[in-house]
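Quick one: structure for this chain?
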Amino acid sequence: MTDAVRRDEERGRRAYIGSFTSAGGRGVLAATVDGPTGALTVTGASDAVADPSFLAMDPGGDVLYAVGETEEGVVAAFDVTGPAPRPLGAPAPVGGAHPTHLALAHGHALTANYGSGSVSSLPLGPGGAPHPPVEVLRHHGSGPHPERQAGPHAHQVVPAPGGTWVLSVDLGTDSVRVSALDPATGALNAHGETALRPGSGPRHLALHPAGGHAYVLAELAPTLTVCRWEPGTGALTTVGEPVVLPTGTAAASYPSGIVAAPDGRFLWAAVRGDDTLVVLALDESREEPRIVTTVPCGGHWPRDLALDPAGRRLYVANERSGDVTWFDIDPATGVPTPAGSLEAPAASCVVFA
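Got it. Here's what it folds into:
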């Protein structure tokens, strides 16, 4: 038993679930996590913000942030020291439409605004409450898909560890942009753009824990673009595009989320439509992911997936079946085994404190 696992079992953990209130969800749910089994038990919820589709936890574990994925997009902060999330002041506008993702970096909340194709930087006050954006960096461009790529659609924003680089994945322009975040002001300065295959529709990426590589999951084509990442220069270079589904998959499939194992040996991807979790093993080069197997996600339309902090369980937010399922991971093979589920209407994501 590792030290991380032992700490989890001794003190327990808390998890938070985002859900679409417009589709019957309860908003932001708080839950306890049973250490030995991983089971979730809801302790409270808040519907103070409409459609909190993605969440991010402050490193201190006392403040939770949510985007409101609406036309007038917002970021909201919640005090989570009690059993139910408590709003910290009024939500702040992001200056963009339908934000789908957020992350925290250098005292700022960063949002990917899908509807308007932009990334926003919002300063956080001393108590954690967000303020209106100091920067809205707009993307430009389009792709060949007639309905989904008429313009830019930023879907994810990821701060690279150990520095000030920020990577934003744009489904509409088939590209990943790299920007530099000024820690003092929150300004975002465009640095570079890496083009991916036209029409692939990149949605989310995962950085390898050792650095040096990024794995970009496409939504409009079932592929995974492998990239080399140079943290010193902020250069992102494509090196390959393996498929992320086994040959012969029949259902129309739309990959959604991807995570990397803490030890860097495996990747897991969620696929909607096919409703599976794909297990990929990485070789020593980290540039040739190999499909190990696929397993049913335990629900319908897995919008996102997350690893628990100890890296031994996967949690999947199944949007259309309205539940969160969790899986024990075989440390030798990376294969997940179903371990439980929790009813959570219109679930969109899971994060941990």
